[in-house]
Amino acid sequence: MTKRNPISVPDGYFQNLEQRLQQIPAHAAAPARVFRPAPYLAFAASLAVLAVIGNFILRKTAVQEDTQWDYVSYLAQSLDPDGLVELKETEELTEDDIRSYLLASNISVEQINMTLYEEDY
Amino acid sequence: MESPEQVFNNIVKDFSERLYWHVRRMVGSHEDADDLLQDIFLKIWTALPTFRGEAQLYTWVWRIATNETLNYLRKEKVRALLRFASADDLVAQKVAADSYFNGTDAEREVAKAVARLPEKQRQVFIMRWWDELSYEEISAITGTSVGALKASYHIAQEKIKLNLSDSEVSK
């Protein structure tokens, strides 16, 4: 393969890009200072976080109610294609709910693809 | 001592053009690359206080850029799937339609063949071939071993050849 750059940019793009990017600090919030607690404080804080998470998980598993969010979450994870189409027809859950969930989740594209089109596999 | 704004402006000066070309080759179109680059530099600005100097600034900036790019590509694919559209060949389609492509037909076929590689393989190929980073630099950025990167680059080259011969056959 020979190396020649076949792609280009609009005239003056890079000068303009640099100027636009340098505007970011003025428009974005100032970067937050990083708080570095003392080791014993960090340990205590992590214990507190673990306690809160543990409590949340216990409550979730104990109640087992099909809340709307649970359903979206379940559906998004299992990605039943019929359910997904059905869901799009209901007013309770919007497609945006599912889209937002999936975009923010760690579910792989392959998993989503395979589940959506599982009959093809 | 430099202010955060000065540090950021130096990063923009030193990295914006180089990262643009990397991102452009990863996403396949000028418009997408321009949008994504804004997001990358916003991320760099907000993450600047977390930079501790343990990694080189170069590695840190590239790591943010490559992670954001992979994340962007994942979201594009998920969006396509949720439209019940094919998530395959999304970038190759953008390369095919790119109005700022002024190479030959053969060069466009090569660019499309590269665009059809899986994201991580494409990333390694572009970083090595186009961005001319060493395996050691890519390893520091991606956290992948040099051996695995070499294997990935070799496989990518073979796939590009195969993609090109397939597109020749289908003509």
How would you explain this protein's 3D organization?
The complex is a heterodimer of chains A (121) and B (171). Chain A has 121 residues and is mainly alpha-helical. Helices cover 63% and strands 0% of the residues of chain A. Chain A is built from seven helices and no strands. In chain A, helix 4 crosses helix 6. The longest helix of chain A is centred in the middle third of the chain and has 25 residues, at 39-63. Chain A is flat, with a radius of gyration of 23 Å. Chain A starts with 12 loop residues before the first helix and ends in a 5-residue tail after the last helix. The relative contact order of chain A is 0.06. Chain B is mostly helical. Chain B is built from eight helices and no strands. Chain B has helices at residues 4-27, 30-47, 57-82, 90-97, 105-115, 119-130, 135-142, 146-169. Chain B is globular. The A-B interface holds A 1, 3-10, 14, 17-18, 20-22, 24-25, 28-34, 95, 98-99, 102-103, 109, 112-113, 116 and B 4-5, 8-9, 12-13, 16-17, 20-21, 24-25, 30, 34, 37-38, 41-42, 45-50, 74-75, 77-79, 81-82, 84, 87, 98, 100-104, 107-108, 110-111, 129-130, 160.
What is the gist of this entry?
The complex is a heterodimer of chains A (121) and B (171). With 121 residues, chain A is an all-alpha fold. Chain A contains seven helices and no strands.
